[in-house]
């Protein structure tokens, strides 16, 4: 998109999100320019709903959500909003020219970083470790650093999070509220990830992985789309992974520590589906790659997929 200075820049998800009213209302009350903006928002909303319905297809535990989305698509309820709540650019508050210069410098300084984002329970950590072992990469796990470091820094935890009970966190909120909460909080703490990566040596390629590496965050810090890929589990694959993880210790899960584990697990499943759809839509907007993971590829084929995608940025020699 060209700005008013004639310079090209990426549109933020918030610029493409639902404008809050239907196209019919816009036609009644707005100027031609505003009509165009409202129609763009209506198209984007319908596109998001289409991705969600496709993603949720065949998942019995998500049928209520799917029906709700169909109702929204017919315009009977309010707008569906899954955009990040944090407004504006992520790291800078300068004018357009200063911002462009800062972003370009940041992309140069992080040109040695590869990104694997996407949904939980898809195998990002396993695949990143296998790739790192082959090419002697440094692994940066976003979740690990959040649990052990970022949560204790300013901006690392949502305000009031520690005071919430497990039911307030996972049972009482609706899945959409959970998704919007995670989108907002994970986006807000991404600058802490950038600070960590900027402190690492430049002479060793880094693979940064974690579900909080959202496309709209990563797009700010990469030179090439080949530096990032996003893996999204199908609902059935996600359930299979969770079953394996909790087989020997179900008490460790967050859902199991609530008064209604079944409802909490269902909320989390639908939250993950909503977030996966938002990631897929954002990748399409930003020209980034995502892959659905359904278990049809074995580990070797999955690593080969990452190698093919990251090829221009991987070391030319193997770690032997």
Can you put this structure into words, describing what you see?
The chain is an alpha/beta fold and 320 residues long. The protein contains 14 helices and five strands. Strands 2-3-1-4-5 form a five-stranded parallel sheet, with helices on both faces. The radius of gyration is 20 Å and the shape is globular.
In the CATH scheme, the class of the largest domain would be Alpha Beta
CATH fold descriptor of the largest domain: Rossmann fold
What is the N-to-C order of secondary-structure elements (H for helix, E for strand)? HHHHHEHEHHHHEHEHHEH
Approximately how much helix is present in the residues? 40-55%
User: What is the number of helices?
Assistant: 14
Instruction: Name the shape in a single word.
Output: globular
Structural class, from secondary structure content?
alpha/beta
> Spans of 5+ residues with little confidence (pLDDT < 50)?
1-32, 55-94
CATH homologous superfamily grouping of the largest domain: P-loop containing nucleotide triphosphate hydrolases
Quick summary of this structure?
The chain has 14 helices and five strands. By secondary structure, it is α/β, with parallel strands linked by helices. Helix 3 packs across helix 13, helix 6 packs across helix 14 (299-310) and helix 9 (175-188) crosses helix 13.
């Amino acid at each position: 998109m060209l700005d008013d200075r004639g310079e090209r820049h990426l549109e933020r998800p918030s610029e493409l999100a639902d404008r809050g009213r239907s196209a019919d209302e816009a036609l009644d009350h707005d100027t031609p320019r505003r009509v165009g903006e409202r129609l763009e928002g209506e198209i984007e909303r319908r596109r998001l709903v289409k991705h969600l319905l496709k993603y949720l297809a065949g998942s019995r535990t998500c049928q209520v959500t799917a029906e709700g989305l169909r109702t929204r698509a017919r315009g009977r309820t309010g707008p569906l909003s899954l955009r990040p709540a944090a407004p504006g650019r992520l790291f800078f508050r300068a004018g357009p020219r200063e911002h462009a210069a800062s972003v370009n410098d940041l992309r140069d300084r992080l040109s040695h970083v590869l990104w694997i984002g996407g949904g939980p329970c898809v195998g990002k950590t396993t695949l990143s470790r296998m790739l790192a072992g082959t090419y002697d990469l440094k692994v940066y796990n976003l979740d690990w650093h959040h649990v052990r470091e970022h949560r204790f820094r300013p901006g690392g935890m949502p305000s009031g999070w520690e005071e919430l009970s497990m039911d307030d966190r996972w049972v009482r909120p609706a899945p959409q509220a959970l998704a919007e909460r995670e989108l907002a909080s994970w986006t807000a703490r991404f600058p802490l990830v950038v600070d960590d990566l900027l402190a690492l040596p430049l002479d060793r390629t880094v693979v940064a992985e974690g579900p909080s590496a959202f496309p709209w965050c990563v797009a700010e810090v990469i030179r090439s789309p080949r530096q990032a890929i996003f893996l999204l589990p199908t609902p059935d694959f996600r359930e299979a992974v969770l079953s394996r993880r909790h087989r020997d210790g179900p008490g460790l899960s967050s859902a199991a520590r609530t008064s209604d584990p079944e409802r909490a697990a269902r909320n989390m499943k639908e939250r993950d589906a909503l977030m996966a759809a938002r990631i897929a839509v954002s990748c399409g907007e930003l020209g980034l790659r995502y892959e659905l993971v359904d278990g049809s590829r074995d580990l070797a084929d999955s690593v080969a997929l990452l190698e093919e995608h990251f090829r221009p940025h991987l070391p030319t020699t193997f770690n032997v």
